[in-house]
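Reviewers of the previous submission asked for a worked example of the structure-prediction workflow described in the proposal, so we include one complete record here. The input consisted solely of the amino acid sequence. No template or homolog information was supplied to the procedure at any stage.
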Amino acid sequence: MKEKRQALITHAVTKGLNPNVKMKDSGIEWIGQVPEHWDIVQIKRISALNPKKSTLSEEKDSLCTFLPMEKLRTNAVTLDETRPIHEVYGGYSYFCDDDILIAKVTPCFENGNIAVANGLVNGIGFGSTEINVLRVNGKGHNRFLYYRLQEEQFRTIAKSEMRGTGGLKRVPTELFESFTIGLPHTDEQATIAATLDRETARIDALIGKAEQSITLLKERRAAFITAAVTGQIDLRGEQ
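From that input alone, the workflow returned the following structure tokens.
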């Protein structure tokens, strides 16, 4: 089911939803063919990476959401910490509601720690400097770019470009700006994103049920073994 989820995302954000659409060669090896009406653009053309926080100068006494790295997961952000803005202004990543948050450090990037910020205190958040922030402009749809950054080819290239040693490897910041993608019009981006929201939620629910069943079966197996080796079950008649 996890493989099906990934394949669904990859196909939707690189080929669209219409199986009969006319395709064209993108001219870029790792992209291949894209729908004929899509543009070929770098991510920096539709979003700003790590936007400036200078506009917050008059709000430094207000509260904001604080986000440690461990509270960023795939499509999930735990919003249970707050800080005064002046305490975190200088040394943390800044973001607002609707911004895309993506981990850049190993193993968080490989684990798919990416989400769209929503429900922040005063609409403002600060978090780990190991989080990159992408803020889309009028040419992009945040949920579409959120899914596009989960596409398998991007993840593979990003992992191969990681720099550093051991557990401190990071995706180069410039890759998030310079990476080239096929891009439909904003209306089609929104339609693709809404479809993926619906379909991935359905698959995630099935994954949750399957994982719950696996956990219960493991507990039952362990309990059976314990009962057997401690003599609580009479196995003398078993073959």
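The first strand starts at residue 23 and ends at 25. We consider this example representative of the routine output the project will generate in years two and three.
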